[in-house]
Write a structure and sequence with these properties.
Layout lengths: L13 H60 L2 H22 L2 H11 L4 E11 L3 E10 L2 H14 L2 E11 L5 E9 L16
Antiparallel strand pairs: 1-2, 2-4, 3-4
């Protein structure tokens, strides 16, 4: 039995080459089919998105038209009266929920012995809420500064400033301290015991 090929043209195993070519062809056809399927999917998605965009644009135009109609029908004088009424109602509510007891407890718990109060004026501000002005008289500026520091440390006041400081004829210093009163932020004050500060 001969094991050598004696032909003038050697015999090549074409079966492996054909199998490889068939595999490559199948892969190319599969990739092409996948690309075609993706293209059709994206085309459908694009058409759907385009329809949604057009629908949103129509709705936007419709809403803008309605808004313009509503704006044209608004009576500005009546709106201004309504806003003024709402602001007045908010101020009344702010005054109604204002607790003098709580404010005085905060002040009593933080008032140094060298400082005395001559006036307290709360007012409701539309943007800042409740503003409290406290007029104090002290022997030294340090006493006023200590009072301010204690009030801020208690957490019930924010943005405290000493305004209109001047020296009285008897040598005491008078100052108007003003700041935003936020009692919910501070610790709930307990009434100060007699003789304790």
């Amino acid at each position: 039995m001969l094991k050598h090929n004696l032909a003038t043209r050697p015999f090549y195993n074409a079966r492996a080459v054909h199998a490889a070519l068939l595999l490559v062809t199948v892969l190319v056809v599969a990739a092409g089919a996948f690309d075609a399927w993706e293209f059709l999917q994206l085309r459908g998605t694009r058409a759907e998105l385009q329809a949604r965009i057009e629908n949103a644009q129509r709705r936007t135009l419709d809403l803008r038209g309605r808004a313009a109609t509503i704006r044209a029908s608004i009576n500005t004088a009546e709106l201004d009266r309504t806003i003024a009424t709402v602001e007045e109602a908010n101020a009344l509510i702010g005054r109604r929920v204002f607790s003098w007891t709580e404010l005085l407890n905060h002040i009593e718990n933080t008032l140094p012995d060298s400082v005395r109060i001559t006036a307290i004026r709360p007012r409701f501000d539309r943007t800042d809420g409740m503003i409290v002005a406290v007029v104090v008289v002290a022997r030294t500026v340090d006493g006023i500064n200590t009072f301010i520091e204690k009030l801020e440390a208690a957490g019930a006041f924010a943005g405290l400033l000493s305004r209109d400081e001047f020296v009285n004829e008897d040598g005491t210093i008078q100052a108007a301290i003003e700041g935003r009163y936020v009692p919910a932020a501070g610790r709930a004050p307990a009434p100060a015991k007699a003789g304790a500060r």
